[in-house]
Amino acid sequence: MALVESLQKAIDYMEDHLLEDIKIEDIAKEANISPFHFQRTFIILTDISIGEYIRRRRLTLAAQELISTNRKVIDLAYRYGYETPEAFSKAFRKQHKITPTEARKGFGRLQAYNRLTIQVSLKGADPMNYRMIERNAFQVVGVKRTCTTETTNEGLPGITDFWADMHQQGVIKQLLEQNDGQIKGLLGINDCYNDEQNTLDYWIATEHKGSVPEGMSAFHFPASKWVVFEVRGPVPDAFIQTWRSIYSEWFPSNRYEPADIAGFELYISEDVNQPDSINEIWIAIK
């Protein structure tokens, strides 16, 4: 349960310093894990980025203060981290669907995001199929796009669009033709979380031993031990559920910790939308 306790400690730290200019490095330090690992774990378990959580909580408290005090909007804007009343009003309207003035007059409803509490299930009712392997350093080649970390019921929409675009442009076919390594299939890699911009770098790639093909870039994985989880069912639902199970059930009940190396989804089945589709999630461990 150390992972759960660490995450909750970091969340409590965010709440205690909500009105300050807190950095991801300070938050992750409270959890005693790296910023990369903390950001990845937080998004998987909560479906939102750290920056988005802080913004939602600040605007929730701002709304409460707005309707319960006579404090000026300009003062609230500065108090909750906005440089101008206009920026505050824009963010307020985006979350609450009404303006600060309308909220103070009692028009419409406010949308509150309560303080987050991490709850992890260790019931283990459903078996998780996995294997452990060790690999030397290896190279993958592919294409990269910066995508938003804002999630929907179907995962990250920017990533879905990226795959569709690469299919249409014939890049997926080119990548499959370059696949000559031990890992057979296409990789979807999450890397370089930017919490201030609410983005991550997403790669569509394949293992390739030779020189980097024109129009593509290389991504290098260091030598590591990997835990490889089986993913059964259509995408994206099967991947979303498996990621959550890994971080809410498998890691809390095992002695391993994720390494600070990008994990990836491995697309093996020819038709990943079928109910009997079988793919994988690879996570480097320590």
UniProtKB/TrEMBL annotation:
<dbReference type="InterPro" id="IPR050959">
    <property type="entry name" value="MarA-like"/>
</dbReference>
<dbReference type="InterPro" id="IPR010499">
    <property type="entry name" value="AraC_E-bd"/>
</dbReference>
<keyword id="KW-0238">DNA-binding</keyword>
<dbReference type="InterPro" id="IPR009057">
    <property type="entry name" value="Homeodomain-like_sf"/>
</dbReference>
<feature type="domain" description="HTH araC/xylS-type">
    <location>
        <begin position="8"/>
        <end position="106"/>
    </location>
</feature>
<dbReference type="InterPro" id="IPR018060">
    <property type="entry name" value="HTH_AraC"/>
</dbReference>
<protein>
    <submittedName>
        <fullName>AraC family transcriptional regulator</fullName>
    </submittedName>
</protein>
<dbReference type="InterPro" id="IPR011256">
    <property type="entry name" value="Reg_factor_effector_dom_sf"/>
</dbReference>
<dbReference type="InterPro" id="IPR029441">
    <property type="entry name" value="Cass2"/>
</dbReference>
<dbReference type="Pfam" id="PF12833">
    <property type="entry name" value="HTH_18"/>
</dbReference>
<keyword id="KW-0804">Transcription</keyword>
<dbReference type="InterPro" id="IPR018062">
    <property type="entry name" value="HTH_AraC-typ_CS"/>
</dbReference>
<dbReference type="Pfam" id="PF14526">
    <property type="entry name" value="Cass2"/>
</dbReference>
<keyword id="KW-0805">Transcription regulation</keyword>
